[in-house]
Design brief:
The complex is a heterodimer of chains A (about 100) and B (about 375). Chain A is mainly β. Helices cover about 0% and strands about 50% of the residues of chain A. The two termini of chain A are about 15 Å apart. In chain B, the strands form two sheets. Chain B has a nine-stranded mixed sheet, with helices on both faces. Classes of the chains: A mainly beta (about 100), B alpha/beta (about 375).
Chain lengths: ~100, ~375
Amino acid sequence: MTVYDCLDCGKTYTAQPAFCRCGDRQFRSRETSGRGRVYSCTTLYAAAEAFEKDLPFQIAIVVLDGGGRLTARIAGAPVAVGAEVLLREQRDGVYFFAAV
Amino acid sequence: MKPVSIIGIGKTAFGAFTGQSILDLALEASRKCLKNGNVQASRVEAFYLGNFAGPAFVGQNHVAPYVASALGLGNVPATRFEAACASSGSAFFHAWGAVAGGLYDLALVTGVEKMTSQPTARVTDILASAGEVDGEVRAGATFPALFAMIARRHMHQFGTRRDHLAAVAVKNHGNGAKNPDAHMRKVITAEQALAGRMIADPLTVYDCSLVSDGAASALLCPAERAGEFASQPIRVLGVAQASDYLALADKEDITTFPAVRRAGEKAYQAAGVGPEQIDFAELHDCFTIAEIIAMEDLGFVPRGEGGPAVASGFSALNGPKPINTSGGLKAKGHPVGATGVGQICDLALQMRCQAGERQIPRANVGLAQNLGGSGATCVVTILGR
């Protein structure tokens, strides 16, 4: 999984922004293992129109090993807070993680 | 800055009103407010409209001059404020600033939302656009899901339980049942709340606020002139707005909202009071967990103790610090753009001893907290009589 570190302040992003919050706009991309930990999660039983076909499905805030956080989908078995997860695929700009 | 007073309030009932347009609702609340303040429309100098998604819900943009002209305000400046569910809190904050700064002597603030003409999945879609569309929303997040993750983390860190969340719903439904203008006047039990249909675990349908139509208005003038208009003016002791990241995942800690803490600190400072001097409050219970966290962020209780405090009756109608005596967003209803000014009207009703069956004995200093999105905007208002 590719992440982007700000060359000035070192903040890590999972999608490269036009500017870092420190004002710098130079980033170094870095490949990571795609491993992380579930910070919080929920299983949805009601969704917006485009996702109704996927119900029920789980989403989570994942904190990546080595920095960066994002809201992602969980594939396969449901996970709990603190679970170790690994990136399985990236599709249409959405990251799908699964339990390790 | 000049001290500012509220000299008139007006609101529609909140509910599902087939056949009433966004304009009908805004006019009803605004007209009631002008009448309440005994002010002719032609004397109003500026119009501030809070509205989240008129364009998406009913296809109408440019809503502020639409309402202002239909009200007969003439050619005054009329501007729409959009800050998700804090839209009318934000409109109120900016109207206060203009009156306090001496720009106008009479400013009318109206919040309105017409939501029920769309099917639920479409409403969910429109509300989700207050989150980060290029990130969390693309991954499938809805607002119930974002607050479900907040609740899950709060449970993990502090031991908050589902029955604590249910206690918020039971309390607010009990209060709403006493409010003739509430969307849902139905007393519920903890068992019902806990057995409710799951929306985004751990939140059931009873943890979520309602999709409503409605409008609310307030009329502001410098305190020194309030006596010319109103017999029971309410003083704006302090009001502040703050902002934060749009995406929930960008917050290092999702069990607290920096924008709520910041707006609260500034409002307390301006008012010269602390949380212990607040007699009662209307807090933004878009989801039950949000009321618990607001109690903590505003200093009513220490961090992590919001859930047990609600369960102990701390915030009950007859408790030491009544919260959401109106029924809150949970039972009174949540027409998102109307909610912020609606809270202010409900504080004023208590302070004027006009809250009927839900009247509390001590209502000298009240606080309203209006939240936008998952904490990206917050407006805190402290009123005194």
